Amino acid sequence: MHGMDVVNKPPDIGNDQSSSTLLSTVQRELSDDLPSLETVRQMIKYETSLRLSESVQQLLDLYHKDDNAITVILDSIQQHVVEHFGYSHVNILRSALSRFPDDPVIKEAFYIKHNKITQGLVNQGESAVERINKLFRSHASAMQLLTIYIAEAHARDQWPAGKTISCVDQPTILEQRLDNARQFKNKYNFEMPMLVDSMNNTFHTTYGSWPFRFYVINNGKLVFKAEPGETTYSYDMDELDAWIASFYQEKNI
Fold this sequence. Notes:
globular; Glutaredoxin
């Protein structure tokens, strides 16, 4: 059994300098210039084919519990793409929509269409459900805490990130969202009451909540909006916990 555990445990690519060679590129002089519209279109098409390839999906599945590794894999793909086309900086790919906002091909491209925001994380190494359940138990007596299920971040039919993470399609009717929410609460013993966003994505449009975010509303006013870390894109749940405790102590709640 010990030998099997060693074989099945993926290596820690988050701290491995060789992770940049997940997708190798022949060494050549790279340009800092901005590519043409047609080149950007080709980049996005190539990035899509790599991301959806069976080998990359299997890799995402293998590391589905390691958020840092997932980030390394996706960043490596994008860096490989720009270098493959002879350019140096990954922002050439990431800024495609801002450079060509009216181009129909780019607006409908897989990477652009489903990449609403950088993927967020909870504290590294900690189950999101366990931590949110703990937050709920700590403050439920003083505040009303709710979770709102919005559009899937990595739906199986839109932006898959391995079969483990991407286990459902993007709901197209409200009943599908409701069913997903019920299944999630039951499967993961999620304790906080859960609401479901409308199919017009009213909550997300109003609060910018994709893929997930934390808010505090008091007397009808938004008084706190958690922001992920600038470099880790993760939320410090202890900081959020402390802010809530301090807030209702000040209000004598």
